[in-house]
Design a protein that fits this description.
Blueprint (H helix, E strand, L loop, with lengths): L1 E6 L16 E4 L6 H8 L8 E4 L2 E2 L11 E5 L6
């Protein structure tokens, strides 16, 4: 099954030739959760603060489904 992934605000540095907000497809196995996806993409879990699946906040234990749209954001500070 496949999911669509987008990364933002610097997380793209962990991926080869991916740009800010650019959607890309990832082939995942039936039992994968968000933790498995981050491991597969070689994105350190501690670098990801916000994880949205189909526009809703999810934790690392969320089990992925075919066609899920995943957006990943690092911690962002400002003031």
């Amino acid at each position: 099954m496949q999911v669509e992934v987008r990364v933002f605000s610097g997380l793209e540095k962990f991926l080869d030739q991916k740009r800010f907000g650019e959607p890309f497809s990832v082939e995942v196995q039936d039992n994968w959760d968000l933790r498995s996806l981050l491991d597969h993409l070689s994105i350190p879990k501690e670098q990801v603060f916000t994880k949205l699946v189909n526009g809703k906040h999810q934790d690392l234990d969320y089990k992925l489904n075919d066609g899920d749209r995943v957006s990943l954001f690092p911690p962002v500070g400002g003031g």
